[in-house]
């Protein structure tokens, strides 16, 4: 098993895939998450490093075979989640939905936000916010509406899915079934190519983290934010 939680590996993998292969891969991501949601479970640490591929997935022709969601011990029943707000969050900030950064509980909609960020990584060949310190300042900007730039040349249907997944208001995000339906009927052309980012892959902020970790926030920093700004 391998993940793509490595900048150079992710860049090579993304650039080797056609749009049709990326769309097929997204469909497999969706089916994996759909199994959890249909079991009334949410993943509380969903990020690119927890998406695993079989060993043959490094080959483009095998890229959509056997995709797994790992760190299953971080799944929680929606009915059993505590309602109290804690100042400690566990996860990777770029993949955490804004309502969670504000101290909310994990929901299916917060998983959809994380899924959109995983899609973006495969599309762009980049990890999100590599030049930023992954701290409360970045969390604050995300809560105000900051999102990664979608690369030029991305098919319109995929752009719409990303923007819907990244809605600040979780009630406006699509369900996993809706995303599956959209992908099934979307028109994704292989005639377009994207402008891959030209940033040096080695230029990462020393405090950019892409694995789950405990994060201690002072939610008072976010008090001035309007809901779903």
Automatic annotation (TrEMBL):
Pfam families: PK_Tyr_Ser-Thr. Residues 1-186 form the Protein kinase domain. This is 4959_t:CDS:1. PROSITE patterns: PROTEIN_KINASE_DOM. It comes from the Eukaryota. It comes from Funneliformis geosporum. SUPFAM superfamilies: Protein kinase-like (PK-like) (SSF56112). SMART domains: S_TKc. InterPro entries: Kinase-like_dom_sf, Prot_kinase_dom, Ser-Thr/Tyr_kinase_cat_dom, TKL_Ser/Thr_kinase. GO terms for molecular function: ATP binding; protein kinase activity.
